[in-house]
Batch of 2 targets.
Target 1
Amino acid sequence: MGAVSGEGVCGIAQTLVMSPLRLPRTHNLEPRARRFLFMVETVARLLELQELNITLRETEIVHGTANSPDLCALKERVQALREQVNMDHLARFDRLMRQGLAVVRLHNDNCEGCNIGIARGDVNRMVTGKLEPICPHCGRFVLAS
Amino acid sequence: MKLASFLAADRVVLNFTAASTRDTLEQLVAPLVKADIVADAKQFMADLLRREAEITTVMDNGVALPHARSNAVRRLGLTVGIAAEPGIQYSPESPTRSRLFFCIAVPGYAPTAHIPLLQALAKFSREPSRVDKLLHSKSASVAARYLINFKS
């Protein structure tokens, strides 16, 4: 795969946001593209982690503290995902999850976590990898698309 | 958690029968589609089945609480299903047949909105006398009223 220019990063962004876990190899990419892919991958993992955490909470409500093979497998998936995320991002994620949601969508450039608008320029910079996909108002990870 | 905002008599399905998990869910999803809570029944059904495959939503006493977060859901909604005797083998792993179902539709934009509702329903379901009384409801409106009066 050849080096990816700025325009190439936008093209990748559209594809990856739709299917963020099918990622190309990064060794031939420019540093900015690599950083962008890293963040897209991180947000995708955190979203999956958030979903699993919610499923775990539901399971505790429905089944109490009884353990089952399925529950153990779920916990193992959570642990495996956590090990793939950078510690700083994980700390932010855990802190946000204690208060509610950690990963939210953008809807018409509004963060669905705090309902405050994010400047279009910032959204574009998040999509192109020039800015970390984190809401400047509430600090949640955002899925920009 | 007040169940009144989620329950109307038309959201209670009484004395239904079903041959499979999918069949059961189709009957529970229908009132949600009719009330415009679920915009895309096919998508929501797929999400329900995916969630059920992850980990069962059937409690030890046979009460089932199928639920799923879905982009096909417009707002938080609930359907109550009371199956005709002897019940439905909803989950293949469950040793008991299920007669009482609480199907919760969770909107994708608010993935934890259903947690208090789920807690209230699980608390209701843990008391056998309450479940028994609900199962013997003579009509959908009686069943809805009984649930509405439950204080979690």
Note: Strands of chain A lie at 103-107, 110-111, 141-143.
Target 2
Amino acid sequence: MDDTALVIAAQNGDREALRKLLAKHQDGIYALIRRIVGNDADAYDATQEALLAVVRGLPGFNRQSRFSTWVYRVASNAAVDQLRRNQRNPAPSANLEDDYANTIARQDAHTPSFYTAVEDRLSIDQALQLISHDFAMAVVLRDQLGFDYAEIGKILEIPIGTVRSRIARGRRELAQILGPLRHSGAEGTNENHPTSN
Amino acid sequence: MTSDTPQTPNEPPTPQGSESEDPQDELVSSVLDGEASPEEETQVRAQSKLFERLSTFSRVASAVGAPVAPLNELSARRMLDEVMVEVVPGEDAQAPPRNTRSRWQRPWPALGAVAAVILIALAVPIIGSLNNSDSAKQTTEEAGVAADATREAHDSDSAASSVRGHASADGSTDERASDESDTHAPSASAAAQSTWLGDFDTVEGLANEALRVGSLDNALDASGALATDDDSGTAEYGSANPSTTPADRRLEEEMAASTPALCPPISLETGETIVERFAGRAQGVDYYVLVTETALYTRRVYFQQWADCESHEIVP
């Protein structure tokens, strides 16, 4: 049963259809949020909030857009809300070096010592935390979930040109942050580092 | 080629120089995504610099697109159960007990909360000095476990009310139960206000009982249920004046003989309030148990071995 049929059934009170609908998109929602918020616990909470929001908003969903578009819009909002909650209630970092790296990254992304400091431990999750969540969201929707630019534009409610720009800028910043990881890997060298051009 | 600039008010500062970096990044990125024209793709592949950039972006895309470990089946099902219960009236009968959601793996902010909560529950005279923080920290790390459950909003309201009623029955801490986010030290009688839940085989069993009792409409009924449910002979029942129960007297005596220690302060989340205090035993170890509720109506249970801490501080 496709989304439309499930949505109609759910809107008509079919609980099983509602559950199937949620289950169908649960992993994707979690994957998006997990990449954006950067840890399992927050991702769990935000995913649950997103699902709650979906169910609460389902009666008003007019089916003029794809259900998945609407769902991932809700999910992206839930992820941003979670980030904001974290900003309001910052947890003391268990790794002060990460905070330091974060600070340095925002102050000067071209400082070589920053790359040296983080190259062995900076994961893609951490890297995504260092860039604008607007950029991160667009990149994750594209690279993690495979949406095309038009769909991403609908999800984020921005023009396609802005989608293109955000993805490019997000990748550029991620490449800056992750450059040394490539350098230490089997392929790629710092010659590819964007700041060296 | 479009060069739209996102206009978001909360966008963090762009790293210096990034705007002036390769202006063809959008072109390269579009080619990578199959969103460019054949001519543009030819252009990118024909220029070594752009082709290198394409390779760089490809690696970044692969990293971002690496599979995210999905929720395990149990967690996924539990989440759906909780969502359905939360928003679909009448779903309760089909859903597993909502108070079984485990938070054991919640990262360390919760562990911090554990420490604070524990200290609250200890609620004995503050005699600890600040010279034993290492042992307190160790205790927190070793003994801190947490569980929570999402509840329906109306349940949480009634539960919170019941806790306030339970506390006021003691006549000494009416306001504390409803305003735990304030910074203050516990009264010496706080431990005596903790309802004894019983003796359990596992800490999770104790947690579930705390959540179950904390979910009932009033503490007095909950205490009765405890007495009925427990057939081990070791559990005592609470009452409107739990300090009179044998279990609480035993706890008070044991606490009086405990070694003072100072537990670190904790920070409850915004909107997270303490709604119930309990004491209980699991695997032969006595615990103080605190049930909290977040602004999102998520219930959490915090534990601490009662003998480990004697003072506490809550940071609002």
Note: The radius of gyration of chain B is 27 Å.
